[in-house]
Amino acid sequence: MPEHPQAMNVVEQADGPVLDTAALGAEIRKLRKARGKTLADLAGAAGRSTSFMSQLERGRAEMSISDLKRVALTLGVPLGWFFVSESKPAAEVGRVQRAGSRRRLGTVTDGLVEELLSPNIGGSFEMFLSTFEPGAMLLEPSLRDTEEEGYLVKGRLDVWIGEHFFELNAGDSFRIEREPFRWANRGRIEAVVVWVIAPPTY
Predict the structure, then answer these.
(1) pLDDT tens digits for range 65-82
(2) Which domains does the chain have, with CATH numbers?
(3) d(CA 41, CA 49)
(4) Among 20, 48, 153, 160, whose CB has the most other CB atoms within 10 angstroms?
(5) Contact 8, 18 (CB under 8 A)
(6) Where are the alpha helices (DSSP H) in 36-164?
C-alpha cells in the first residue's frame, strides 16, 4: 500500500501516471549509479532507511510524492522525470522514444533544455536533443570522464574544447574526449544539437 495514497493520487491527476513500482525502482537505481550516489545518500535525502531504499529499487516498496521530490532533487532531475504522459506498447519500451513523451532537463529560463532521445537510461551511451537559447552560455569549463559527440542541427554555437575555440554552424559536428569544454550561443536564434555521451551521465 502507498504510504500516502492521497498525495500520490493528486500528483497522478495533475501530471499523468507515474511509473509502476518496478519501473520506478529501476529508474532510481540507474540514476543513482550514474550520479555516483550510494543507497545511504538517497536514504538520508528522503529521510528513509537504507533498507527501505533497497526495497524501493527492487520494486518491493512504494514511496510518497514528497519523498520522491527529495530523491529527484538529490539525483539532479525534475520530479517529472519519473512520470510518463502516455502508456507505451510493451514492444516500444527500451526500443522507441516518441517525440511527444521525451523527458526534459532544464528550462528555457536556464538557457538550456535537454530532452532525452534515448528510449531509456542505463545503456552504454545516451543521446540528448540540446536546445541553447540566444545568449545562453556555460561560463565555467566542464570536465567529464566521457567521450561526447554533437551534431549542430540548427543555429550557430561557439564551443571551446581544451585550449581550442570553434565557431560551429548548422551541419557541423564536434567531439569532446575527456577535455574541459564550454559553450555559448551568441546568435539571434536558438541552437539545437543532437548530443551523444558515453558512458551515460544521467
Answers:
(1) 778 888 888 888 887 777
(2) 5-82 (1.10.260.40), 102-198 (2.60.120.10)
(3) 10
(4) 48
(5) yes
(6) 39-46, 50-57, 65-75
